[in-house]
Automatic annotation (TrEMBL):
<dbReference type="InterPro" id="IPR019811">
    <property type="entry name" value="HDH_CS"/>
</dbReference>
<keyword id="KW-0486">Methionine biosynthesis</keyword>
<feature type="binding site">
    <location>
        <begin position="12"/>
        <end position="17"/>
    </location>
    <ligand>
        <name>NADP(+)</name>
    </ligand>
</feature>
<comment type="pathway">
    <text>Amino-acid biosynthesis; L-threonine biosynthesis; L-threonine from L-aspartate: step 3/5.</text>
</comment>
<protein>
    <recommendedName>
        <fullName>Homoserine dehydrogenase</fullName>
        <ecNumber>1.1.1.3</ecNumber>
    </recommendedName>
</protein>
<dbReference type="InterPro" id="IPR022697">
    <property type="entry name" value="HDH_short"/>
</dbReference>
<dbReference type="InterPro" id="IPR005106">
    <property type="entry name" value="Asp/hSer_DH_NAD-bd"/>
</dbReference>
<dbReference type="Pfam" id="PF03447">
    <property type="entry name" value="NAD_binding_3"/>
</dbReference>
<keyword id="KW-0521">NADP</keyword>
<comment type="similarity">
    <text>Belongs to the homoserine dehydrogenase family.</text>
</comment>
<keyword id="KW-0915">Sodium</keyword>
<dbReference type="GO" id="GO:0009088">
    <property type="term" value="P:threonine biosynthetic process"/>
</dbReference>
<feature type="binding site">
    <location>
        <position position="190"/>
    </location>
    <ligand>
        <name>L-homoserine</name>
    </ligand>
</feature>
<keyword id="KW-0560">Oxidoreductase</keyword>
<dbReference type="InterPro" id="IPR001342">
    <property type="entry name" value="HDH_cat"/>
</dbReference>
<dbReference type="InterPro" id="IPR036291">
    <property type="entry name" value="NAD(P)-bd_dom_sf"/>
</dbReference>
<feature type="binding site">
    <location>
        <position position="105"/>
    </location>
    <ligand>
        <name>NADPH</name>
    </ligand>
</feature>
Length: 342
């Protein structure tokens, strides 16, 4: 393999996986010009090889070992979803010294700390920009941009499906079931929308944000979670008359603040997901449809806010690609140092 070529194996090639492949095709010239790196997706694990996919040049396989045992593949990109068998595949990839990129918030909320520990021990990367806020580059901003600051409060709309349903309930005065059905028909909600509507998806993302912002692992079961299922059109109409809109808000803050700084402990963090009735003045009330929004209150900078597409194959694929590029830079530098030492 050429010194500047980095071979990637995908575990999964659905919406996000195909978004990654398309992103590489679209931007390969720019990546080569700016970074001198060529990215090649060599193989992808799928369930059904006969399914039509809008990608070319990638070998499809149903055998995970074709990727996990391939010595040329240095970066494994997990975009399969779910906890099992994904957990064992990622663990095996890390154990074999392969860098891993994932967009799987459920897996990260449940096993992120353990997997990160393995990656650190092995001196390799486990990156997951696509797991929170889809296309909005938030994790790297927290890790690098706010490295010298301390986030005190996280407050956001982290799930596009429920935000779409709630927006429809307010703007088109639809009932919950009707708005959910419309979200499913428009492709914004899965056929089983449980993770979204119960608030579990937003809670997983909140756990990841807490890890990044507070450097603390909040177990998923310690997040107070309430979904949007119980909301009635009457309640929405009455609140709307009073100038308020419902939003599924995920928030966490350090309640335990000493004068010398911010003391962080698990007991000192309150993390919860639930419907809040926001006035039109609240910044999150203007995050509509499938968009996500996040505001962070930090010790030095103060208030920050991001809004944008929180999901979608191309947007999330772009976030995954940013992780791949970061790893590829490291791989190529390490390779050239290794070659020079020989
Ligand atoms: N979609 C989004 O907008 C979005 C946004 C942020 C994060 N994510 C996360 O990204 C991940 C992927 O989401 P997605 O929307 O791309 O899912 P998807 O469209 O359902 O794609 C899943 C892919 O994984 C393959 N797969 C699933 N189980 C498998 C198994 N046991 N063995 C082999 N292959 C298997 C499927 O194969 P077949 O194609 O053959 O069925 C498919 O290619 C999830 O963790 C999700 O939470 C998604």
């Amino acid at each position: 393999m050429k010194e500047n070529t980095v071979s990637i194996g995908l575990l999964g090639c659905g919406n996000v996986g195909q978004g990654v492949v398309k992103g590489i095709l679209l931007h390969s010239n720019k990546i080569l010009r700016k970074l001198g790196i060529t990215l090649v997706v060599s193989k992808a694990l799928v369930q059904d090889i006969s399914k039509e996919r809008a990608i070319e040049g990638v070998i499809l396989t149903q055998k995970p070992q074709d990727i996990l045992d391939d010595p040329e593949i240095e970066v494994v990109v997990e975009v399969m979803g779910g906890e099992h068998p994904t957990y064992s595949y990622i663990k095996e990839a890390l154990d074999k010294g392969k860098h891993v990129v994932t967009a799987n918030k459920l897996l990260l909320a449940l096993h992120g700390a353990e997997l990160q520990e393995i990656a650190q021990r092995k001196g390799i990367c486990l990156l997951y920009e696509g797991s929170v806020l889809g296309g909005i580059p938030i994790l790297r901003t927290i890790q690098y941009g706010l490295a010298g600051d301390q986030v005190k409060k996280i407050c956001g709309i982290l799930n596009g499906t429920t935000n779409y349903i709630l927006t429809q309930m307010v703007e088109s005065e639809k009932g919950y079931e009707e708005a959910l059905q419309e979200a499913q028909e428009a492709g914004y909600a899965e056929s089983d929308p449980t993770m979204d509507v119960t608030g579990l998806d937003a809670a997983c993302k909140l756990v990841i944000l807490c890890r990044e912002c507070f450097d603390l692992d909040i177990p998923l079961e310690e997040v107070e979670i309430k979904g949007i299922q119980g909301l009635t059109p009457e309640e929405v109409a009455e609140q709307k008359r009073q100038g308020r809109v419902p939003k599924l808000v995920a928030e966490a803050s350090i309640i335990d603040q000493s004068s010398s700084g911010l003391e962080k402990s698990r007991e000192g963090i309150i993390a919860k997901v639930g419907v809040q009735w926001l006035s039109r003045e609240a910044i999150l009330s203007h995050v509509s449809g499938v968009d996500n929004g996040l505001s962070l209150e930090t010790q030095l900078v103060g208030d920050l806010f991001w809004k944008g597409p929180g999901a979608g194959g191309l947007a999330t694929g772009g976030a995954v690609l940013s992780d791949i590029v970061e790893i590829a830079k490291k791989v190529v530098v390490e390779r050239s140092i290794g070659n020079a030492a020989r």
